[in-house]
Amino acid sequence: MVLLRCLTCCDVDRSRFVSYGRSVMNFAKIEFPDDDAAAKGLHGIMQRGRITGLRDGKFIVPSPALAWLNEQGIPYRVVEMLNQGDVVQTLRDNLTHPV
């Protein structure tokens, strides 16, 4: 209760929060041309964000990871650009994860 009263009596400086604007996090479903490119790319992205590996050899990565791949000169192919709803649907898809 003490914590609750403290939070209600204090003002929050909202300008200190990170602002993402109105943009929503986008994702990309990508594939690599060979195992060497996949190893380098996935190792680098794993250190910076989250990767979802699909059974068909494709990966779902946050869209900022594409800029990093380009900076490093790692070859990849974008299969599809996704939003959060598309990612959830892909993970629930029976073809991706058979029951």
Low-confidence stretches: 1-8, 12-21
Coarse shape:
globular
User: How are the strands of the biggest sheet laid out side by side?
Assistant: 2-3-1-4
Helix count equals 4
Total strand segments:
4
Gap from first CA to last CA? 46 Å
Q: Give the overall average pLDDT.
A: 78
Helix and strand run: HEHEEHEH
Helix content: 25-40%
Oligomer status: single chain
Query: Which structural class is indicated by helix and strand composition?
Result: alpha+beta
Main sheet properties: 4 strands, antiparallel
Beta-strand level of the residues, as a percent range? 15-25%
Cα radius of gyration in angstroms: 19 Å
Structure overview:
The chain is an alpha+beta fold and 99 residues long. It has four helices and four strands; from the N terminus they run H-E-H-E-E-H-E-H. It has helices at 2-9, 35-46, 64-72, 84-92, and strands at 27-31, 52-53, 59-62, 77-82. A hairpin with a 5-residue loop joins strand 2 (52-53) and strand 3. The longest helix is centred in the middle third of the chain and has 12 residues, at 35-46. The radius of gyration is 19 Å and the shape is globular.
What order do the helices and strands come in, and which of them pair?
Blueprint: H1 2-9, E1 27-31, H2 35-46, E2 52-53, E3 59-62, H3 64-72, E4 77-82, H4 84-92
Antiparallel strand pairs: 1-3, 1-4, 2-3
Brief digest:
The chain is of the alpha+beta class and 99 residues long. Helix content is 38%, strand content 17%.
